[in-house]
Design goal:
CATH architecture of the largest domain: 3-Layer(aba) Sandwich
Helix content: 40-55%
CATH class of the largest domain: Alpha Beta
Number of strands: 13
Number of domains: 2
Shape: globular
Strand content: 5-15%
CATH topology of the largest domain: D-Maltodextrin-Binding Protein, domain 2
CATH superfamily of the largest domain: Periplasmic binding protein-like II
């Protein structure tokens, strides 16, 4: 073979090898785009999902990547994420409303979440400090504390009531006129129920003054219980994560809190089926006007009315915070449940995932997303919270939550003290204690002691 022919053959071979090694991309064929898999909690309003879809599409276009964005309802998404982490077949980014208590503490402990300290460092100047603290978790595998989640939004316990029902009962429905000392506050809703039933037994015979979720099926139960436990000056854990519930002062507070819940139920001021409610049921009962007032850990109840009945939202529903302590008549901290994004450690796209999260949380993008939920969630960022939306004087609900988060003492739930406490919530220890008293006729003392013993047992088994 002549030299020129030999070089021609070698040149053809080189081209073939190049195609084989590089794959698509030559001859006008486009390279396959990088793909980011994102699992996201389906919003309660379509506007939330539409907002996230827009942000994801913008990121995909700007970075020439495919974003596989999947929405799933919270009750299904939590188990889906847990199964993926256990099987090591994970998305690149995951956000679920249950991640804060059900997923992040346990899987950070087990070393299965990516360290996001570099991302947090960039975002830190914007954070509300109380929200940021919840992302600081212990990794038993690496034997270190670090940031293993990215907080983005939060909720805390407020209360909502029907102004027209209060007025029909003969009382002033103005939020400023609702008594806010402990005994007077709860007595007020009892009086409203009694008055309405007396006025029209046929119409109001099955109406209840207080829509208090009291089941072992609902997360609202432990939100409510532990918020009111603080009102009674009780603690379950020390800030160092030690169980102190059995100490005399705390045991007494637990018993009194349990007695409060079981008494309003047994006296007939709470719907009988509240012992089997899910998280949606206090919302449904309120919307159906079978309860006058319900505590709820977000403003989703009036928020749902915003899109369907503006008259209800602006004129007929009132939003207020919680009554003062029965112990000393003073305020007590609001428990704030901060919702975080996580990046599984098994993700092969951690750099791209962090870039995506940063894009989502840009001030303009995240303000549009969180306001699309109409205030259901309060942002974890000072610049977003400064948007006029959160202090609109014409809105009767959102500024109440803004005042709660920015102008009142707040603190994290106990799972931020020790990840073992996430199991206490998973088992819904407080809901089971209420059921013991109401359905099995245990004393409050016996049910409280069983709950305390169960918490101690959980912590002993957490190695």
């Amino acid at each position: 073979m002549k030299g020129s022919a030999r070089w021609y053959v070698l040149w053809i071979i080189a081209i073939c090898l190049s195609v084989a090694l590089t794959g698509p991309g030559l001859g006008g064929v486009a390279y396959a785009k990088d793909k980011l898999v994102v699992w996201w909690n389906k919003g309660y309003y379509k506007e939330e999902d539409e907002g996230m879809q827009k942000v994801a599409a913008e990121f995909a276009k700007q970075n020439n990547v495919d974003v596989e964005l999947t929405f799933t309802i919270q009750d299904d998404l939590g188990p889906k994420i847990i199964s993926a982490l256990i099987a090591h077949r994970v998305p690149d980014v995951a956000f679920c409303f249950f991640t804060d208590w059900q997923i992040a503490p346990k899987f950070a402990w087990e070393g299965q979440l990516a360290d996001v300290s570099d991302l947090i460092k960039d975002l830190k100047p914007r954070y509300l400090e109380s929200h940021l603290k919840t992302a600081w978790m212990y990794n038993k595998t690496a034997k270190k504390w670090s940031y293993y989640s990215v907080p983005i939004e939060a909720q805390a316990l407020g209360s909502h009531y029907w102004k027209d029902l209060v007025q029909e009962a003969g009382f002033d429905p103005d939020p400023k006129k609702i008594p806010m000392t402990w005994n007077e506050y709860w007595g007020f809703w009892k009086k409203v129920q009694d008055s309405l039933r007396k006025k029209d037994p046929a119409k109001y015979g099955k109406l209840f003054g207080i829509g208090m979720t009291s089941s072992s099926r609902a997360t609202d139960t432990f939100y409510n219980f532990e918020q009111y436990l603080l009102a009674y000056h009780g603690e379950v854990l020390s800030p160092e994560g030690k169980v102190i519930a059995a100490e005399a002062k705390n045991r007494e507070a637990i018993i009194k809190t349990l007695a409060f819940f079981t008494s309003i139920y047994s006296e007939g001021y709470v719907p009988p089926d509240a012992l089997t409610w899910t998280d949606a049921d206090n919302n449904v009962n309120f919307a159906n006007k079978t309860v006058v007032m319900t505590p709820n850990p977000s403003i989703s109840i009036p928020g749902a009315q915003f899109f369907t009945n503006k008259d209800n939202y602006y004129n007929k529903i009132g939003s207020i915070l919680q009554p003062t302590s029965p112990v000393d008549g003073k305020a007590y901290p609001y428990l704030v449940s901060v919702k975080p994004i996580i990046i599984p450690k098994d993700s092969k796209k951690q750099g791209l995932a962090k870039k995506f999260i940063k894009h989502v949380l840009e001030t303009k993008n995240f303000t549009a997303y969180v306001t699309a939920s109409n205030g259901r969630w309060f942002p974890s960022f000072k610049d977003v919270a400064a948007d006029p939306f959160f202090t609109n004087p014409k809105d009767p609900h959102v500024p109440v939550a803004t005042d709660q988060h920015l102008n009142n003492p707040t603190r994290a739930f106990y799972y931020s003290y020790h990840p073992a406490y996430s199991q206490v919530y998973t088992e819904n220890v407080w809901g089971k204690a209420m059921s013991r008293v109401v359905t099995e006729k245990w004393t409050n003392e016996k049910a409280a002691d069983e709950a305390i013993d169960r918490i101690q047992t959980i912590f002993k088994g957490w190695k």
